[in-house]
From TrEMBL:
BP GO annotations: attachment of GPI anchor to protein
InterPro entries, alphabetized: PIG-T
Gene Ontology terms: cellular component: GPI-anchor transamidase complex
Native source organism of the sequence: Ploceus nigricollis
GN (gene name): Pigt
Protein name (database record): PIGT transamidase
Domain of life: Eukaryota
Amino acid sequence: CSLQAGLAVLLKAERLFHSSYHSQAVHIRPICRVSHWFAQLPCDSFTVAACLFLVQDASCLAMSWELRQTLTVVFDFFSSGQGKKDWSLFKMFSRTLTDTCPLASQSKVYVDISPKNKEKELLEVSPPPTSVQEAIVQGEKKTYAVYDLLSPSLFNTSRSLNVQLKWKRPQDSSEMPIPTLHAQRYVGGYGLQTGEICTLIYNTHPYRAFPVILLETVPWYLRLYVHTLTIITKGKENKPS
């Protein structure tokens, strides 16, 4: 559908490149085609995963390729909007969703409406979402308002979908909540002799550990040497897998 319909309508270049952060990625991986006789195996609901692994490992005669393209954009309206956290699709992208892509098997918009304080419902989204889903993300319970663009009722009342999030009243604190996993990076020293780039990754969960895949975007003015890489965890050197 290119930029004619679907979520790609929002991809206006001048808005994306003037955001606080944007990242584009292409992920390609091989997928094993499961044999048709998988359904004939004596598997119950508790052993499907194990049987699926055995079939893929033993009779993977044909491979498929999965292509996944992702775009991550960060808009900082809290700093530029005089401390207000309200936002909308039009405010971010200067466009709204007008139609779904007819070739898409699914097309959804998820809005995180998890309240910071369980006793105070401060968030409201409009228009009303198609459904509300709950999920466990990094050990925390999250609530999402889901807009299904393939739902016939979504575009019946209006030919334009402008998802908006507003706060019913000012929050008790202007500080943004710290995510469970967060990171910061800085450049130290100077030149090829003492120059270094340091990345600090924090896990604030009280007891759970998470696997981390780190992708570094190196500034053009830095020349890195892989053999100088050191990883320190809790004061001790740690070797990556």
